[in-house]
Design goal:
The complex is a heterodimer of chains A (113) and B (115).
Chain A (H helix, E strand, L loop, with lengths): L3 E2 L4 E5 L4 E7 L6 E7 L6 E7 L4 E4 L2 E6 L4 E6 L8 E8 L8 E2 L3 E6 L1
Parallel strand pairs in A: 2-11
Antiparallel strand pairs in A: 1-3, 3-8, 4-5, 4-9, 6-7, 7-8, 9-10, 9-11
Chain B lengths: L4 E3 L2 E4 L5 E6 L6 E7 L5 E8 L2 E4 L8 E4 L6 E5 L8 E8 L9 E2 L3 E5 L1
The chains are: A mainly beta (113), B mainly beta (115).
Chain lengths: 113, 115
């Protein structure tokens, strides 16, 4: 049972344009959401997070939007840069019980010059 | 402040051998998590430990896998009698927070290959 889903395995965006990565979840107990970026042969790097009490969090070029009613979140990167090319993972956790992160399958983002 | 350290980075074992993966959390972090990533998949939670305690091992296979985080020294993920299906990247993460919310910081991973 995939509780966190990233339905787009890959996304290609032109440099300077906006990249939008999407993530859906099914478990209503999730109340904290995170985005990680991963380069090949490296560990995931934390990018940005959002608590369920908010609907938007911004950090520089990165903005995460949360729609709790739709159980959907998205990561916006603007403007996109070549160094943003990587695999992006959405993750979720629940305050109650274990602190484990549940990850989506990832979206491979390619920024074209 | 050094990040999460994992060693070895690459480990090759023959079927039936034991694999030991080590993880040193970031300084000041007392919460350690282990995740496994199979090819072309997301990371899957295995176990959550605090010093000398296993808090949640719901993601650990019932047999052959064990984990510890002793009072002194790194956390160890141990896989006995490895099989080809154990080939994966194993990531360790650490966190300073005790309230169940917050970022986890990942190490570079150990890539285990079982031949």
């Amino acid at each position: 049972d995939q509780q966190v889903k990233q339905n787009s395995p890959s996304l290609s965006v032109q440099e300077g344009r906006i990249s939008i990565l999407n993530c859906d979840y099914t478990n209503s107990m999730f109340d904290y959401f995170l985005w990680y970026k991963k380069y090949p042969a490296e560990g995931p790097t934390f990018l940005i997070s959002i608590s369920s009490i908010k609907d938007k969090n911004e950090d520089g070029r990165f903005t995460v939007f949360l729609n709790k009613s739709a159980k959907h979140l998205s990561l916006h990167i603007v403007p996109s840069q070549p160094g943003d090319s990587a695999v992006y993972f959405c993750a979720a956790s629940a305050r109650q019980g274990a602190q484990k992160l549940v990850f989506g399958q990832g979206t491979r983002l390619t920024i074209n010059p | 402040n050094a990040g999460v350290m994992q060693n070895p980075r690459h480990l090759v074992r023959r079927r039936g051998q034991e694999a030991r993966l080590r993880c040193s959390p970031m300084k000041g972090h007392s919460h350690v998590y282990w995740y496994r990533q199979l090819p072309e998949e997301g990371l899957k939670f295995m176990v959550y430990l605090q010093k000398e305690n296993i808090i949640d091992e719901s993601g650990m296979p019932k047999e052959r896998f064990s984990a510890e985080f002793p009072k002194e020294g790194p956390s160890i993920l141990r896989i006995q009698q490895v099989v080809r299906g154990d080939s994966a990247a194993y990531f360790c993460a650490s966190s300073p927070r005790a309230d169940g919310v917050g970022e986890q910081y990942f190490g570079p991973g150990t890539r285990l290959t079982v031949t």
